[in-house]
């Protein structure tokens, strides 16, 4: 019997998205062809966006990379400005470091809205910081795009009308993991996962899909703690594969603990494990050799043979990143797509009015740098399932294998 396909309808869906929606960069900078009614805001000639990111603390492994992507994209968009009604507006980004603390993120969200007068916000790489920010954003009715991952960031929808997220949905990641386990004939699996909303979402999706083959589960203690006991609980049951559902640096620490406990089986990471920290040195690369990860396909970068507008924009982004930071690290630049989505919504709505940005954001379908998105009034996230791919650690790098 042929092995099941790991990818899912990639050509059809991505082709439709490219053909019908174009790219976020092209849409945001292109001419205004909408016939939408509505006034043009004439006060400020800027589109003001606030960003609260994890530049320090446990979330910095992802937060710093998102800040880099965001600064590159804002500079790119500001070369020509964003057409909003009869004005071409520059994007004014206001950056804040929330230190990976939810209470700080909540305070910053309040200040960005009430003192800085932002038209929209983005941020919250950690689920907890996103949840803290979205409470303020929803109350103040300010569009907010979360960079975090947890089911309850965008549900229940009746209480999240101004809230959107970009990271892949857990069920889509788990579907690909299920196909991968079946293709490799792994009949038992262990799950080691982080605490909090991120781990809760992941393990819930895993139980729903893989309950019959999950042999053991183990929750990780707080970041910076000793993970040995959690790893030993997994190793005692000796599953054929272990899924690590945790964000860096916890994901890499969990891997080290498993290897330290003499586990030599297959390791599979969720997207949160793909960060510089996981392959930071030769020891970590050796521990991760052969490990697999489900992650947005943007991790593979781009090639000279890619010819769609999305591919060309992705290539331009990668070039700019290399020019500025020396090497492209392969992270999924959710913040890049977030600012493009907000700029596009303002363009379509011909206004920086918060309510109008929300309305047009709610109906966007687009191919971004990190992946594809399709927002509707009944679905506010995340990334389309066919934006995902499987990668393997080979010679210290993430190499796409499907």
If you had to describe this structure to a student in words, what would you say it looks like?
By secondary structure, the chain is an alpha/beta fold. The chain folds into 2 domains: 24-167 and 304-381, 3-Layer(aba) Sandwich (Rossmann fold); 170-300 and 389-400, Response regulator (Rossmann fold). The chain is built from 13 helices and 15 strands. The protein has helices at 10-21, 24-29, 60-77, 102-114, 127-140, 170-183, 196-210, 228-237, 250-260, 282-288, 309-325, 334-349, 354-361, and strands at residues 46-53, 82-84, 87-97, 120-123, 144-146, 163-165, 189-193, 214-219, 241-245, 266-269, 292-296, 365-367, 372-374, 388-394, 397-400. A hairpin with a 4-residue loop joins β12 (365-367) and β13. α8 (228-237) packs across α9. InterPro entries: BCAA_transport, Leu-bd, Peripla_BP_I. Belongs to the leucine-binding protein family. It holds the Pfam family Peripla_BP_6.
């Amino acid at each position: 019997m042929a092995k099941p396909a790991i990818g899912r309808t990639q050509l059809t869906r991505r082709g439709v998205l490219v053909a019908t929606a174009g790219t976020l960069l092209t849409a945001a900078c292109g001419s205004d062809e909408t016939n939408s009614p509505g006034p043009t805001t004439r006060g400020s000639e800027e589109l003001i966006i606030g960003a609260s990111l994890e530049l320090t603390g446990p979330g910095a492994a992802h937060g710093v990379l998102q800040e880099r992507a965001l600064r590159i994209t804002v500079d790119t968009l500001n070369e020509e400005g964003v057409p909003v009604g009869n004005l071409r507006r520059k994007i004014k980004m206001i950056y804040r470091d929330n230190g990976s603390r939810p209470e700080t993120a909540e305070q910053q969200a309040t200040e960005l809205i009430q003192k800085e007068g932002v038209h929209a916000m983005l941020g919250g790489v950690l689920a907890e910081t996103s949840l803290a920010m979205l409470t303020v954003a929803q109350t103040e009715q300010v569009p907010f795009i979360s960079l975090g991952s947890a089911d309850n960031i965008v549900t229940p929808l009746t209480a999240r009308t101004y809230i959107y997220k970009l990271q892949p949905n857990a069920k889509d990641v788990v579907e690909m993991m299920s196909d991968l386990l079946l293709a490799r004939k792994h009949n038992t699996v262990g799950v080691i996962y982080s605490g909090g909303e991120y781990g809760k979402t992941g393990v819930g999706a895993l139980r729903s899909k893989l309950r019959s083959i999950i042999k053991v589960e183990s929750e990780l203690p707080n970041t910076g703690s000793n993970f040995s006991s959690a790893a030993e609980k997994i190793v005692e049951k000796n599953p054929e594969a272990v899924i690590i559902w945790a964000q860096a640096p916890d994901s890499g620490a969990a891997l080290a603990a498993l290897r330290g406990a003499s586990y030599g089986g297959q390791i599979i990471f969720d997207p949160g494990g793909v960060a510089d920290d996981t392959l930071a040195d030769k020891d970590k690369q050796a521990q991760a050799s052969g490990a697999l990860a489900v992650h947005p396909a943007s991790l593979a970068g781009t090639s000279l043979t890619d010819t769609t507008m999305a591919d060309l924009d992705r290539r331009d982004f990668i070039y700019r990143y290399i020019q500025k930071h020396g090497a492209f690290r392969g992270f999924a630049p959710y913040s890049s797509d977030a600012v493009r989505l907000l700029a596009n919504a303002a363009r379509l709505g011909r206004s920086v009015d918060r309510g109008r940005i929300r309305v047009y954001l709610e109906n966007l379908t687009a191919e971004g740098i990190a992946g594809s998105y399709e927002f509707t009034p009944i679905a506010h996230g995340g990334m389309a399932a066919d934006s995902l791919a499987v990668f393997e650690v080979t010679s210290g790098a993430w190499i796409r294998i499907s």
